[in-house]
Q: What sequence folds into this?
């Protein structure tokens, strides 16, 4: 197992999730990433930013990420609303830890940024600091 580290802003992301059930599901997915850091799908460009070194993990309130069920459940008509955006540091061949960049809705209300917009801005700030 490898450590999962949250960027400081991700704590606020978790608090902004709609209810405690979805917060617990998000945390359970983070626990699952400790065992399988390549669980999420690779990302590319999103909202004008390069997220190609990141992965995305879909989740929904009804998920049970710590229950290992080998029978695939039927896919719902709509995709899960929530995402975890993370990257494997230093890279996927030599994972030392998982860095969670953002958690949230893919399609938020009009007055709030989506998870990919948050992730792009946070990664831009990380790169500028180097």
A:
């Amino acid at each position: 197992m490898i450590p999962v580290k949250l960027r400081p802003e991700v704590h606020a992301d978790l608090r902004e999730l709609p209810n405690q059930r979805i917060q617990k599901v998000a945390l359970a997915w983070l626990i699952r990433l400790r065992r399988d850091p390549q669980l999420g799908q690779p990302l590319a460009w999103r909202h004008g930013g390069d997220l190609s070194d990141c992965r995305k993990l879909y989740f929904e309130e009804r998920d049970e990420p710590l229950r290992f069920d080998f029978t695939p459940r039927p896919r719902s008509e709509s995709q899960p609303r929530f995402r975890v955006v993370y990257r494997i540091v230093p890279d996927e061949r030599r994972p030392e830890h998982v860095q969670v960049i953002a958690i949230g809705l893919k399609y938020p209300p009009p007055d709030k940024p989506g998870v990919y917009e948050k992730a792009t801005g946070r990664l831009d700030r990380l790169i500028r600091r180097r």
